[in-house]
Amino acid sequence: MSSLKSLGAAILLSTLAVSAHAGESNRLNINQASATEIDKTLVFVSEDTARSIVEYRDQHGKFNSIHELAKVKGVSKRLARYNRSRISFE
């Protein structure tokens, strides 16, 4: 019986690990994405705002956090936090 519990726990852990990894790969790398990719992937981000994000990145370098992204004109702290799960900074 304990070997069945161990097997069940192992299966659960491996499933969670795969799910977590899959979630990361679905994120948009904000430091490499084009304005079109940003516009299509992030919620409530217009074409103009997406272009502003790319222009800001080109002028100031890579983003390292949601707080830095919120410095872009048109991106509020609330909007940046709302899209946090869709963005990576790699």
TrEMBL record:
GO terms for biological process: protein secretion by the type II secretion system. Residues 1-22 form the signal peptide. InterPro entries: Competence_ComEA_HhH, Endo/Exo/Phosphatase_dom_1, RuvA_2-like. The keyword Repeat does not apply. This is Competence protein ComEA. It comes from Endozoicomonas elysicola. GO terms for cellular component: type II protein secretion system complex. It holds the Pfam family HHH_3. PANTHER family: ENDONUCLEASE/EXONUCLEASE/PHOSPHATASE FAMILY DOMAIN-CONTAINING PROTEIN 1, ENDONUCLEASE_EXONUCLEASE_PHOSPHATASE FAMILY DOMAIN-CONTAINING PROTEIN 1.
